[in-house]
Design a protein that fits this description.
Length: 515
């Protein structure tokens, strides 16, 4: 990436508070070249590097564009770092460590050790083991150079013992984090468990993680947080959603009781709430979802990328609640409402998030009968070959075939079905019955078939449909979208929204015991 591109991206990502800090910095300064450049990007909204260069040089022909680019970029990073020091305990602790080093270099030893003591106290409070380790190591190094003045052997051994405990905590956290990272990597690249054999392949991670927690001994926020995150994600992967929900509840309680230990931005808290929302969605507890969506709406952070992720989670789970209940018109309005604030900014999201958003927006268009809009929405995602490895991608391909089915593109349907089946043949261990069920149906042609004949076809599918809904591995794709309901809607020529609304009402009447 060109330095000018990086600068444009940095300025466009600044929050109102960050821009205010820059304005305060330049308030008593004359119109410098870097200020003019900033305004070209921020006020004039120039986002093309070449256009930016031409506009700058036209107004400042004797100035060096590249030099000003580098200066402004470094200045903004310096201002942002200073601002973070005032907002974030992590920045604050390491900034204090730098102060201690300066004091030591100036032979102000008493002041240096006083700062290190304060850093250690704050690091313990915030459970920042890395800052604590650096402070402990600096203290021992400085005591050594000063010939351990006023430090007897007992005090020295005590300091070394505390440092060993810090190293032990870091080692345990690292091992536990490594296991969680492996689990997440498998989830993202292999998808949820699709059989008992796949579930058993996770046993080694589960055993190791439990062993680390058992050996930790002391009460530790990070260890407990990582444990509940691991457990919750494991249960989601193997399809045990009630257990996953319980783990997310415990995790949320842990966060609520330790707000001073949240990261800034609170990424793990967002992951926790997202897990809660997914669990509540599976249980169709939409009122509970509203509660956590409202909590997310109150979440703030100086990080614009984090705020965009919060907006994504709010958007996607509100959209889920509309789709699940067959409320496609409301879902369409929700999409329109967020066109400028989120959908137009999709390229700033992770590719997995972009793919998921495209999938569900396309499903809304499908539900509203806007088939060409649905096809356009998925076309870009389908064209990204490097996304083929994502477990979600096959679902996207199947939805794309459904869209073409609605459009009557017979040649495309047959070609794509053959392609998907070839892929399924190569990956037999990763296939789901729902996928085969859908592909088999998509080959049907209903030309000249009477309603009676259609009813017979559905009746012939009844046992298979019941087995799909009863199989916990199959529900992992059905929780993304009720594809079986779409098949029923096509067979009986009724709106998909009617089928989903009926299923939603039936679920709650069964839960209440009124069915």
């Amino acid at each position: 990436m060109l330095k000018s591109e990086s600068l444009i991206q940095l300025i466009n990502s600044l929050t109102k508070q960050e821009k205010k800090e820059f304005s305060i910095y330049i308030s008593n300064k004359s119109e410098k070249d870097y200020i003019f450049l900033f305004r070209l990007i921020d006020d004039k909204k120039i986002s093309d590097p070449e256009e930016l260069k031409q506009c700058f040089l036209k107004a400042k022909p004797t100035s060096s564009f590249n030099t000003v680019i580098i200066y402004l970029f470094d200045l903004l990073i310096e201002i942002l770092t200073k601002l973070r020091t005032e907002q974030d305990s992590y920045y604050l602790l390491f900034n204090d460590l730098l102060h201690a080093r300066v004091l030591y270099e100036k032979s102000m030893y008493q002041e240096c050790f006083h700062v290190l003591k304060k850093v250690k106290e704050k690091a313990v409070y915030y459970e920042n083991h890395f800052a604590l380790l650096v402070a402990q190591r600096l203290e021992l190094n400085y005591l050594l150079t000063l010939d351990f003045e006023e430090v007897d052997e007992k005090k020295l051994l005590n300091k070394q013992y505390k440092m060993k405990n810090t190293l032990k905590s870091i080692s345990q956290l690292n091992e536990q984090s490594s296991l969680y990272e492996l689990l997440k990597h498998r989830m993202l690249n292999r998808g949820d468990s699709r059989s008992l054999a796949e579930t058993q392949k996770l046993d080694d991670l589960v055993t190791s993680e439990i062993s680390i927690v058992a050996s930790a001994g002391v009460e530790n926020f990070e260890i407990k947080k990582n444990h509940q995150l691991f457990q919750a994600n494991y249960f989601v992967t193997v399809g045990d959603y009630k257990a996953a929900f319980n783990s997310f509840v415990e995790l949320n309680k842990l966060f609520e009781e330790n707000t001073h230990l949240w990261n800034n931005p609170p990424v793990y808290y967002l992951m926790t709430v997202e897990g809660m929302l997914e669990s509540l969605r599976i249980m169709r507890n939409y009122e509970g979802m509203n509660y956590f969506i409202e909590k997310l709406g109150k979440l703030s952070s100086p990080s614009s990328s984090f705020q965009l992720n919060v907006a994504y989670v709010i958007f996607i789970y509100r959209l889920f609640s509309y789709i699940d209940r067959g409320e496609f018109e409301q879902a369409g309005l929700w999409i329109t409402e967020h066109q400028a604030s989120l959908i137009d900014k999709m390229p700033l999201l992770k590719e997995q998030q972009q793919a998921e958003m495209s999938l569900y927006i396309a499903l809304v268009y499908l539900g509203n009968g806007e088939y060409r809009k649905a096809r356009r929405r998925l076309s870009t995602t389908i064209g990204r070959g490097h996304l083929y490895s994502l477990p979600l991608f096959r679902t996207i391909r199947i939805v794309n075939v459904m869209i073409h089915y609605e459009l009557g593109d017979v040649d495309y349907i047959q070609s794509e079905i053959r392609s998907i089946r070839r892929e399924m043949t190569k990956n037999r261990g990763h296939n789901l019955k729902v996928e085969s069920f859908l592909l088999k149906f998509l080959n049907y042609s209903f030309v000249d078939k009477s309603r009676k004949k259609r009813a017979e076809i559905w009746e012939g599918m009844a046992e298979e449909v019941r087995s799909l809904y009863a199989d916990k591995y199959e529900t992992q794709i059905l929780r993304r979208f009720d594809f079986v309901a779409w098949v029923e809607a096509k067979i009986f020529e009724v709106p998909l929204s009617d089928i989903l609304k009926r299923e939603h009402a039936y679920y709650f009447s069964s839960a209440d015991g009124t069915d």
